[in-house]
Every structure is written in structure tokens, then in C-alpha cells.
Design brief:
heterotrimer; A: mainly alpha; 7 helices; 0% strand; B: 10 helices; elongated; cytochrome c-type biogenesis (chain C); Cytochrome c biogenesis ATP-binding export protein CcmA (chain C); ATP binding (chain C); ABC_transporter-like_ATP-bd (chain C)
Chain lengths: 253, 222, 207
């Protein structure tokens, strides 16, 4: 836990050591916040003022600029968690544990946001808040998996031992997600052959695509910033816990 | 190694049959879920027979999840699981043996109880047959996913509650194709395709999950 | 009762070994060697890390640092017996069934089940459900598990727990026989074991 006396270590050790990680990555926070804010200002301006209304959906199409980035993050965060899980299982990297734990509630939040904005968008477009369409349904299942992972983290007393177990479950989930997606699509087409709404990415005009991409980057930057803060908090929480335990032991001895 | 495998399988069966009750209770629970549904939605025979595939699978789903906690907990708490790691049989093999025993103890009673549900939910004979085949093919996958849930939560004192919550979303494909393999309409008949997909997913689950469960169990101690 | 043939010579060496449980490092800088026919007694207060060291040696925990190795034994196949504080006895199986299970899992080759039960003084109750045993008798049954399958390394965690004086003498005799056959043992114990073997080492762990 000493930050000093480690100047000659490799970058790998510098990342692996929780105290060192906090020390050097704290400097990244301010630039990350600035980048996030700048991207959001630009993206929101483009989304509200520089992009056209949809000829069918009108202004409600602008929900897309929040919906699509959060939907992207719902999957991206799971990807981050899976990579961290491999880091935990294969290299026993302590920061991978922390990254996995910090990402789970963020992933759940972004997934919930994607569902919420999807529902808001669905009301004027489909005439109902919830439609059992393939995309929405698999996102819902993903949210349930996130909830399961958060609940699993909370169920363990010893967070160090929890990490490897949660990592196993995260990877089982990662293998399962494509299967879930496939089966839900199959199920959705079985029950309602006519596709309700489809976002045809490449055919969208640039005036929509540009703000969309900026917003995707803005939300991703927001996630990275929050993730880093979450990791710092987790490192500190662990340090407090281990100090408390050491204190209690000294009291017992 | 084979003798260790069969020894674990037979011991689990012997223990379950000797302590009695549990597997019968699960079958009873399965039937009761099916019986409760008509009270909830009314005794309309046509509606019931249309919902029957879904009801049968939900009942099976719940019964299997309910029995999950027994899978590793007793062996973990009395130290047997730790000793099994010191045998020549790889831990994944131990998990597979226990998985098969658990399937025999939970899924077979369900299958035996299915005719009862079929009559009460007014399924026609072909639908009943499809239901039996669908459960036969799908429940191994369901139990296999269950072993991961049980292995992941084995060191959590009240893990019995959290394992079903973890496993339920992962088991949705099995539910979709399981029900799909029973239902024939409306629209084109997809039950054959669904059965094949169900078999594929079930096989993958049985092949992969013992390793994941074994990894979770070794990590739980470390 | 020493019907089993001898083991190939082997040696356990540890250099700079440190054990951890969770994030707590419990015992550090351990150096010891245990040769064939030798036993290492682990002493120390509760919480000093005796069980953790045993768990590390059997491979369930990773050492925090340092290393240890069993040399002269085929580490590909199982060679360790562990007697933990949990007895791994199923109350709904009879004594004979409990032993037969471990014999088929671990591969037998040692004493037969009746002979092993006889050796730990449980011969007359072989057909009884293990749930009816007292704590000390359950411990004896757990010890019998070590006799049905010969393995060169015994890791014993408080082997005499719950046993009477006569039981302690029995444990000591069983260990002596194991060492004479060329096995080695590491045992955590508070009580002095009446061992006859000459090669008794002692390791004191401090919390």
C-alpha cells in the first residue's frame, strides 16, 4: 500500500498496484471531465439545433441521440467487464477486480437508461411504452444479468474472493448474451412477423449521423470518467476495510 | 477415474433417495404450479390448452431453480467438496457427475408428472408428446446452468436466494425454444427447428458449465 | 496394521513461504523440509495460520510468496490425504458406505473397509448410520478414510480433536505406521502426540 519507494517498477506493476494506480490515474480525471463536457456541449448543440426533424416522428427523433449511445454503452460496459474478468482469472490483476466491480452498477444504469429512453420513444412511435420487440427484450434481459452481477458482488463478505467468482459468472454471461440475443430475435419474429421499427444505420443522412456519433463519444467519455472515479472509490474502500481489520486485530492481540 | 465418477453419481442418488422427500416435493411443486394457473386465469379449456406449453415450462423452470441450492451446499459444508478436489477425477468431472445425479433427481420426476398436467391443462396427445420431448431435451441444459448458479453461490451463506436470480436471465433461451418446441401455431410450424436449437443450447450448456462451475468452486476457496 | 508397502522416498521443501487467507498474510518466511518418514508439527496460537498453511500445502490456497515443492512423487496423480476440521462424513450413509465411497473415489489399494474400521476401533458398528456416531467416533471414521487409500502425504488439522486419550494414542500409532512405511506428514496440533518416530520437526507460527 506504499506509494513511495517503487520508482523503478515497470508500467505493469504501476497499473497493478492499487495505490499507484490511484496516484497516476488521478491526473487523468480533469482532462477526462473536460473532454466529456466538451463532447456533450457539442453533441447536444448538434442534436437540438443542427439536425433535422424526422418527417414522420418529428422532434421525438431527438430521443435517439440519448437512446442509441446508452444502448451502445449497455453492451460496451459488458465488454469492459468481460475483459476485466479475463484479467482477474488469467493474470489475477488486482485492478481488473476493481474495474469489474466499478463497471457493474454503471452498466446497469446505462442499460436502464436505454430502456427508459426506448420506452419514451416508443410511446409516440409505437403508441405504447413497451413493445416486446427483439432489441428491447434482449436489452431487458441484459439489465437482469447486470442486476444479478451487482447482487452477487453484494452477497460476498470478502471482496477479494468474490472477484474470481464474479469473473466466472460474468464470462458465462458473456458467452450467453449472443445466444440470448439470437433466441429473443427468433421469438420476436415468431410472434410478430412484421418488424415494427428498424434503425437503418448506413442509410441515415449525415445530418443525423454526425450528432449521433458525437453523442456516442460523449457518453463513452462519461462512462470512462465515472468508471475511473468508481475504481478510485473502490480502491479507497478496500484500503479502509483492510485498515479497520488490521486495527481490530491489533485490538484483539 | 470412471469408478470415482460413478461413485459420486450413485452416492448422490442414494443420499437423495434415503433422505427422501426432496425430489418428491419438487415434483409436487411442479404439479401444483400447473394446478394453480387455472385458478388464476379461469377454467376456459381452449385458453388453457393454448397456454399449456408455457405453463409446463414455467413450472419446470421454477422447480429446477428451487432445487438448486442442494447441489453443492451440503458437500461444501461438511468438507467433502474440498476432499473431492484431492482425487484423481478433475473437479469438472465431479461437477458433471453431480449434474447428472441432480438431473435424474429433479427432471425425471417432472417428466413422470407431466401427464397429470397435460390432462388438467387439456393438452392434446401430440402436444403432450412434444412437451415430454421438449422437457427431456431442455432440462439438462437448465440443470447445467443451475450448477453454475449453485457453484457461484456455494460460499454465500444465504446463496439459495441469489442463485435463481442469477440463472433465470441466462436460461431464457431454453425457455423460448422449449416452449417453441411444443407450440405449433399460429403461423408456420417452427417446433422442429425450435427443438433442434433447444438441443444445441442444452448440449453446449452441459459441455461448458462443468468447467465454469469447477473454476468457481476452486476460486471460492482461494 | 501396517500391511501396506512402502512409499518411494519423497521430500517436502518450503523456501520463504508465506501464506495468505483472503488479503491477510498469516505466516511469512517459512523455511522447512520434511523428508520421507518425517513429521512436521505445526504449533501456534489460534489464528496463527496453521490451517491456512495446510490449505496452502494441499493446493487449495495460493502462497502469497515463496514456494514449496513435493519432490520424488508423481504430482500428476493425487498423493495427498487431508484431515480437516470438517470430517466429510455423510450422516445418512452407514460407516461402511462412507468408507466405500472414499475407497472408490480415491482408488482403494489400502486396507479393506472392515479392516480400516477395525483399526480405528469402529469395527462393531460398521452397519450403523454415521449420523448416530458421537463426535469422537466421527473423527475416527474420518481417520479410517486415510487408511483405505495409501497416499504418501498426510496433512492433518488437529487430528486428535474430539478424541479421548485412547484415541490420541491410536492417532499416534497410525501416524507412526504411516511414517515407517515411508510417508510424510504435516500436522497442526496443540496437544503433544505420543509419537515414537524419531524424525519429528516442529514449526512455531506466530500471529
Amino acid at each position: 500500500m506504499n506509494v513511495e519507494n517503487t520508482s523503478k517498477q515497470s508500467w505493469w506493476t504501476r497499473i497493478a498496484h492499487p495505490g499507484q494506480f490511484v496516484a497516476w490515474s488521478r491526473r487523468l480525471l480533469v482532462p477526462l471531465w473536460i473532454a466529456t463536457a466538451a463532447l456533450f456541449v457539442l453533441g447536444l448543440w448538434l442534436a437540438f439545433f443542427a439536425s433535422p426533424e424526422d418527417y414522420q416522428m418529428g422532434d421525438t427523433v431527438r430521443i435517439m441521440y440519448v437512446h442509441v449511445p446508452t444502448a451502445w454503452l449497455s453492451q460496451f460496459v459488458y465488454g469492459v467487464m468481460s475483459v476485466s474478468a479475463i484479467g482477474t482469472l488469467v493474470w489475477r490483476h488486482p485492478m481488473a477486480d476493481v474495474s469489474m466491480k466499478a463497471a457493474a452498477p454503471l452498466g446497469a444504469t446505462f442499460t436502464a437508461l436505454a430502456l427508459y429512453t426506448g420506452a419514451l420513444w416508443g410511446r409516440p412511435t409505437w403508441g405504447t411504452f413497451w413493445e416486446w420487440d427483439g432489441r428491447m427484450t434482449s436489452t431487458l434481459v441484459l439489465l437482469l444479468i447486470y442486476f444479478g452481477i451487482v447482487a452477487l458482488w453484494r452477497a460476498f463478505d470478502d471482496q477479494l474472493r468474490a472477484a474470481r467468482i464474479v469473473a466466472v459468472f460474468t464470462l458465462v454471461g458473456a458467452v450467453n448474451i449472443p445466444i440470448i440475443k439470437f433466441s429473443v430475435d427468433w421469438w420476436a419474429t415468431l410472434h410478430q412477423p412484421a418488424s415494427v421499427f428498424r434503425l437503418d444505420g448506413p442509410t441515415m443522412p449525415g445530418s443525423i449521423l454526425t450528432p449521433l456519433f458525437v453523442m456516442v463519444f460523449a457518453f463513452t467519455a462519461l462512462f470512462l470518467t465515472l468508471h475511473l472515479i468508481g475504481m478510485h472509490t473502490e480502491v479507497r474502500r478496500r484500503r479502509v476495510m483492510s485498515l479497520e481489520r488490521r486495527l481490530a486485530q491489533r485490538g484483539a492481540a | 477415474m470412471m469408478s470415482a465418477f460413478t461413485a459420486i453419481l450413485l452416492r448422490d442418488l442414494k443420499l437423495a433417495l434415503r433422505t427422501g422427500g426432496d425430489w418428491l416435493t419438487l415434483a409436487l411443486f411442479f404439479v401444483m404450479v400447473g394446478i394453480v394457473v387455472p385458478f388464476a386465469i379461469g377454467p376456459d379449456r381452449e385458453l388453457l390448452s393454448r397456454l399449456a406449453p408455457g405453463i409446463v415450462w414455467i413450472a419446470a423452470f421454477l422447480s429446477v431453480l428451487l432445487g438448486l441450492d442442494r447441489l453443492f451446499r451440503a458437500d461444501h459444508e461438511d468438507g467433502t467438496l474440498l476432499l473431492l478436489r484431492l482425487s484423481d477425477l478433475p473437479l469438472a468431472g465431479v461437477v458433471l457427475a453431480k449434474l447428472i445425479a441432480h438431473w435424474l433427481l429433479t427432471a425425471l420426476p417432472l417428466l413422470a408428472a407431466t401427464p397429470l398436467l397435460a390432462v388438467m391443462l387439456s393438452m392434446d396427445p401430440p402436444a403432450f408428446l412434444r412437451a415430454v420431448v421438449s422437457l427431456l431435451v431442455g432440462t439438462p441444459g437448465l440443470v447445467a446452468l443451475g450448477t453454475v448458479g449453485a457453484a457461484v453461490t456455494v460460499t454465500i451463506r444465504r446463496g439459495g436466494l441469489i442463485a435463481p436470480v442469477l440463472i433465470l436471465p441466462l436460461a431464457i433461451p431454453l425457455l423460448i425454444f422449449g416452449v417453441g418446441a411444443i407450440t405449433t401455431g399460429p403461423g408456420p410450424d417452427q417446433s422442429g427447428t425450435a427443438l433442434l436449437l433447444l438441443a444445441a443450447i442444452s448440449l453446449i450448456a452441459v459441455a461448458v458449465t462443468p468447467f465454469a462451475a469447477a473454476l468457481a468452486i476452486t476460486s471460492a476457496e482461494d | 496394521m501396517t500391511l501396506r508397502q512402502g512409499f518411494d522416498p519423497l521430500i517436502l521443501t518450503a523456501t520463504g513461504l508465506a501464506c495468505r487467507r483472503g488479503e491477510r498474510v498469516l505466516a511469512e518466511g517459512l523455511e522447512f523440509t520434511v523428508p520421507s518418514g518425517g513429521i512436521l508439527l505445526l504449533k501456534g496460537a489460534n489464528g496463527a495460520g496453521k490451517t491456512t498453511l495446510l490449505m496452502t500445502l494441499l493446493g487449495a490456497l495460493r502462497p502469497a510468496s515463496g514456494r514449496f515443492a513435493f519432490e520424488g512423487v508423481d504430482t500428476e496423480s493425487a498423493f495427498i490425504h487431508f484431515l480437516g476440521h470438517r470430517n466429510a462424513v455423510k450422516p445418512h450413509l452407514t460407516l461402511a458406505e462412507n468408507l466405500a465411497f472414499w475407497a472408490s473415489v480415491n482408488g482403494g489399494g489400502g486396507l479393506s473397509s472392515p479392516a480400516a474400521l477395525e483399526a480405528v476401533g469402529l469395527g462393531p458398528v460398521a452397519g450403523l448410520d454415521a449420523g448416530y456416531l458421537s463426535a469422537g467416533q466421527t473423527r475416527r471414521l474420518a481417520l479410517a478414510r486415510l487408511l483405505v487409500t495409501p497416499r504418501p502425504v498426510w496433512l492433518l488439522d488437529e487430528p486428535t480433536a474430539a478424541l479421548d486419550t485412547q484415541g490420541e494414542a491410536m492417532v499416534a500409532a497410525l501416524i507412526d505406521a504411516h511414517l515407517t512405511a515411508g510417508g510424510l506428514a504435516v500436522a497442526a496440533t496443540h496437544l503433544p502426540l505420543p509419537l515414537r518416530s524419531a524424525r519429528v520437526g516442529e514449526l512455531r507460527l506466530d500471529p
